[in-house]
Amino acid sequence: MKINIAEAHHRINNIIIRTPLITDDYINNFLENTTFFKCENLQKIHAFKARGAANALSKLQKNLLEKGVATHSSGNHGQALAWAAKIFGTQAHVVMPMTAPKTKVDAVRFWGGEITFCEPTLQAREETLQQVVERTGAIFIPPYNHWDIIEGQGTCAFEILQEGFEPDFILAPVGGGGLLSGTALAAHQFSPKTKVIGCEPKNADDAYQSFHAGKLIPVGAANTIADGLRTSLGDITFDVIRKYVHDILTVTEEEVIDAWRWITFYLKLIIEPSCAVPVAALLKHKDKFKGKKVAVILTGGNVDAEKLRLILP
To answer: For the domain that residue 74 is a member of, what is the CATH number?
Structure first.
């Protein structure tokens, strides 16, 4: 499947926000490098997922779009699809695990999405989704394992690479792999010297295991605070990651929480714990990135208020 990330960016440019790329003198001094943070927490629906959803719906033929769209999601893809559906004048049906953060459930409802809850397992999500699709006739828009989604997510790295500098590294979290796949393809096309590194919680390390084993290994019970990264890679995203990603680093739950606290208080931004995973990898492997230009994708800012207590002094 041939994708065109530059064309996708042109297609959705008037729908999404070109989010800021910021740097901080204190952080650069501490890390002994130059780190830029791509603030997708300031994106529409406060997450990068808006890019993929907007791209996928913009490419749907009118007769299919009129049927409505459906997906399963722990939150950000669900609300992105609901938001995009409202823009394109159709109905979104979202299957969500009962454990999904309240802020994400509320956001799906705000944008007019119809929610069906299920047990917090991939099997339950897929089975419930199938029932919804059969009942409504809606078109399934996968959260990550879909070329149009990958193409849309790649526009985030495309914007980074249009800023007039060539990063030595781009760090992105990895759950289902849509963002990491799109980032790797963007770098491969527009900045081949840039190394793309996936960052993953050790408690949900299917991408790490799959990458090093050379075969797809689904995640079991993913007990991580980074709720957006509990899903497994798909066959499409794994194939892209295996070919174009330089490495995958893992971090512990304690390292995620410490990095979440660190970035919140030093960068003064509200982010989700999933965003803290690449920050944790940056801190853990400080020597690896010393003297380098590093771009870190902060993927979203949809976090429940009670979870923020975990990072208070």
So the answer is: 3.40.50.1100
